[in-house]
TrEMBL record:
Gene3D superfamilies with a match to the protein in the record: NagB/RpiA/CoA transferase-like
Biased composition (Basic residues): 339-356
Compositional bias per record (Low complexity), positions renumbered to this chain: 11-25
Signal peptide: none
Keyword set includes RNA-binding: yes
Top-level division of the source organism's lineage: Eukaryota
GO (cellular component) term, any one: cytoplasm
Organism: Pseudo-nitzschia multistriata
Taxon lineage: Eukaryota, Sar, Stramenopiles, Ochrophyta, Bacillariophyta
Chain residue ranges for the region called Disordered: 1-29, 318-367
Name of this protein: Methenyltetrahydrofolate synthase domain-containing protein
Pfam families attached to this UniProt entry: 5-FTHF_cyc-lig (PF01812)
GO molecular function: RNA binding
Length: 367
């Protein structure tokens, strides 16, 4: 099909259309899916507000002994407030407790799409948040494989979309939101073989000197990185990480960072920062982690995410040990969706891993 030349501008309109899935099979109930998605997202937002208020109250009273990164909550609130007060934020609003959408997200995505690092990549993982929807558009427009996680990993693991695998009448803009991923995506299982060439993440704030990044506080970007690196689907030392943000989210002066700021060992720094006006290459980047840091993973998060339980069980069986777990935490509720209307599709380019490679804590060598 002819590629759509302009990236989608995100609005609150329903961009989905049609009632058949990509293979012309059972009807996909978009209205029911969207109703459930919005309800679950609202629950998650409410829970994140509770977490944020609790953490910020500890910072205000000086009681921060239990917090790993109190400075992140201070910085998040500062950026969210600034973007709303100066009308930099865009739908969905308010941007508090989200990866904030911003004025110029389309321009930042286009600037990213012109970079040689983007153009040379074949498979690109992009987060499912709204400000990166134009990035997902450019991935598909350039005939690359889009790898995107289910929001909060709540309905499964990852899905891939490749326009050449879809009917010619399907437009790119139909495939770049969560409905499109469910309707047209191919589910990816934990032990499939594929290689991620570039990772695009959303951010609330980012430091151009070290690449230190702050998300919205749920830690899913780090979990996804950990799983992919543990399973050998990306090479932690060489795979580039890029973020698209507004210029106000770039913390130029370290004196503007909250007191006591420091990365934790699970944080994934970025290599390239792209804004609507510029591209910043991070030359003194902090080291990236590799694999799952089980001692930081709470029992609650493990219980909520099936793919993590599967990976932990496989790893324990392989190593013959009981892996540690991290401290308790309050989690947003996760959706339990049974997408009966979606047919499983086979991707001939990928094949299951060999049994002996399952559950490896370190990236196995590619054959």
């Amino acid at each position: 099909m002819a590629a759509d030349k302009n990236p989608v501008t995100v609005s609150n309109e329903n961009n989905g259309s049609g009632s058949e899935n990509s293979k012309g099979g059972k009807v996909f109930d978009e209205a029911s899916y969207e109703k459930e998605r919005l309800a679950k997202d609202a629950q998650a937002m409410d829970a994140m507000k509770v977490v944020a208020e609790k953490e910020l109250s500890k910072v205000d009273t000086g009681s921060v002994g239990e917090l790993r990164s109190p400075w992140k909550w201070v910085l998040r609130k500062r950026i969210w407030d600034f973007m709303e007060e100066n009308d930099i934020a865009r739908f969905p609003r308010p941007v508090h407790h989200r990866i904030p959408n911003f004025v110029g997200a389309d321009q930042a995505a286009r600037r990213l799409s012109e970079l040689p690092e983007f153009r040379s990549a074949s498979t690109i993982k992009v987060n499912p948040d709204t400000p990166q929807r134009p990035v997902r558009h450019f991935v598909l427009e350039q005939k690359k494989v889009l790898l995107t996680p289910q929001p909060r990993l709540r309905t499964g693991f990852f899905s891939t979309i490749e326009m050449k695998e879809l009917p010619s009448l399907v437009e790119i803009k139909e495939c770049t939101n969560s409905k499109g991923v469910v309707k047209y995506g191919t589910p990816v299982t934990l032990n499939e073989e594929y290689t991620v060439d570039l990772v695009v993440v959303g951010s609330t704030a980012v430091c151009p000197r070290t690449g230190a990044r702050v998300g919205k506080g749920e830690g899913f970007a780090e979990l996804e990185w950990g799983i992919l690196s543990a399973q050998g689907n990306l090479e932690a030392k060489t795979c580039l990480v890029v973020t698209t943000v507004h210029d106000c989210q770039v913390i130029e002066d370290e004196n503007d960072m909250p007191e006591g700021w420091a990365l934790t060992k699970h944080d994934v720094p970025v290599d390239i920062i792209v804004t609507p006006t510029r591209v910043i290459h991070v030359f003194d980047r902090a080291p990236k982690p590799s694999g799952i840091l089980w001692d930081l993973l709470s029992p609650q998060k493990l219980a909520a995410i099936r793919v993590l339980r599967q990976l932990k069980q496989e790893t324990e069986d392989k190593l013959g040990v009981t892996l540690p777990s991290g401290p308790d935490e309050l989690l947003p509720p996760v959706a339990s969706r049974n997408n009966k209307n979606r047919k499983k599709k086979n991707n001939r380019r990928r094949k299951p891993r060999q049994q002996q490679r399952k559950g490896s804590e370190t990236p196995p060598a590619k054959k």
